[in-house]
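Listing S7. Sequence submitted for prediction.
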Amino acid sequence: MRWTSRQHLEMARRLEEKADLATGTKKVRLAGLAAATRVLATMSIERCSSNRAEDQRFDVEVYRHALPNFNAAIASLPGDCVNTITIVGALVKYLAAIGLDADEIRHLKPSVKRFINDLIARRRSFMHQAAAKYWNEIAASQLLRTEWAQQMFRLPQEDLDLALENEGKRLIQERNNPALAGAYLKIMPLLWESAAISGYLKHKPNLRAAIPPIESIAEATMIASNNFRLTTPELRELAQMLKEPPMPNKALSMADLIINDCSVSAGKRQRYRDRAETPRYAEALFRPSFEAETLLRVTADSNSTTIELTSAEGFVGLPFTHENVVAPSCASRFWTKLDELLAARFNFEHNIGFDGTTIKVDCRTPACQKHFEVWCPTPTSDAGMLIGLIYDIALEASTAPAAIRCLENLRGHLRAGS
């Protein structure tokens, strides 16, 4: 255990008292030991003073390198946690677990302070200070200037919280600066939608403290400076970001595109049914009760068979689409088996429940066609075997890590029906 300077001084005092009472060689030795202990006490005081001086200096580069570890440390905390003690505890526990000693953790104190201030400020943004119903009312009663606000202001509370958290993650990834991301999300809606907010506040003046309209970039940077303690270069970067309208939320746009795409695709297939040459396709749209929708689509033309996987990630996750050409032998087995299943007698399940997965299936080949919706089919049922066939070819043909993770998650839902 390392002694403090006070403990060294106390030990030096005791040794000096014993040296006064001793004689001869013992007295000399005790006096020398007391002097050495006082030197250690002086060195400890100087080291502590130096550490305290260093603790007061915030280093941007140290912060940037420590940031990934800080984010990993709070990954298990609730997304709305703003309790300083809880956050500090999680940070210290994680840093110690990856091998930092007490002095190294103490050296990160300025970065820890900055991280906690940024985190709490980001989680207490103006859009969180007012309940979602007020943003909903602004969207319903006022003309919104940006597509971003048209998407976000209409969301219910839970979806709004998740969407804002996702936007924060996106900005941090782009800018590598949590403080800048938090300031932008706090300021941007109030600046770009100031006219709509002002119009709404005429009827709800008591909300002005929670959602104050910001009239200029100069006012925006002043508020950001006071609330986020941004550096001068960071304030200049924020001003540049605020000059352009915010980009629409990609996840929300993707969810709309998937829904529209399914509708358009259904319309196209309806027209195909009247043609002499019927295209081959098979698709399953998975709709878990509390998770992302995922669409698996297999199509064939004269040259090849293609599997497409699209995940909407609910309203707030990062969307993706993965498309791959299926090996000819695998495609041949798939279409042969699909013809057999579609041509055979089909017994539909009539399950119903609350927590589970609804699957909408649409298949067509020259042999037959099937269009149905089922809830949590058992794997051995007619619907379960057809859905399993589409799932298996998707798993065999997919190579992208995001697609494979998505399919692994779907496997759990398929097994849940057994």
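Caption to Listing S7: primary sequence and predicted structure tokens for the chain studied. The two ends are 58 Å apart (CA to CA). The chain has three domains: 5-55, 125-248, 252-416.
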